[in-house]
Amino acid sequence: MKTVYITRRETFNAAHKLWREDWSEEKNWEVFGKCSNKNWHGHNFSIYVTVKGKPHEDTGFVINLKELSALLKELVVEPLDHKNLNLDVPFLKGMLASTENMVIQIWDIIKEPIAKAGGELVKIKLVETENNFVEYYGGDEPY
Ligand code: NI
Q1: 128 belongs to the catalytic site
Q2: Does residue 141 lie within any of the structural domains?
């Protein structure tokens, strides 16, 4: 049986700011630009979760996308959607609310539940704006 990579997209929107208290306003602006705006701003995020596996004999599915979607809604979308990433999200407490930090945290949260649902998580892509997105492969280089 051949290995197939399957991806589910979910969307959410959330507010944040990138800001270090131990830096001056100028330095925050210099490093974080518009994302350092003191009074917050929002992004419409898309998250692409890729799972690999061999199509199951009974279903032809690598993983049931309904099940994967439900899992992502519960573990990712619900905790993040319409939230302030700096203030409202326990798993981002104490860290900069960057897309890089977000994917690393999300990886740790969804890896096991996806394994229990029969899939192997191989990649998360988190899109913050049309032009900016990050990809994470669980700490290993993909190539
Ligand atoms: Ni931003």
Answers
A1: yes
A2: no
CATH code of 10's domain: 3.30.479.10
In a domain, 35, yes or no: yes
Closest CA to 91 of 71, 110, 67, 114: 110
Active-site hit among 35, 78, 100, 112: 35
Q: In the chain, how many domains are there?
A: 1
85, two tokens: 């990433």
Residue of 25, 30, 41, 82 with catalytic role: 82
Per residue in 63-113, pLDDT (tens digit) is 999 999 999 999 999 999 999 999 999 999 999 999 999 999 999 999 999
Q: Is residue 143 part of a domain?
A: no
Q: Is the alpha carbon torsion for 10, 85, 111, 120 positive or negative?
A: positive
74 part of the active site: no
Residue ranges near ligand 1 (ion) with Cβ within 5 Å: 35
Question: How many whole angstroms from 9 Cα to the centroid of ligand 1?
Answer: 20
In sequence order, what are the beta bridge partners of 8? 49
Task: Reply yes or no on whether 16 is catalytic.
Answer: no
Model confidence pTM above 0.90 = yes
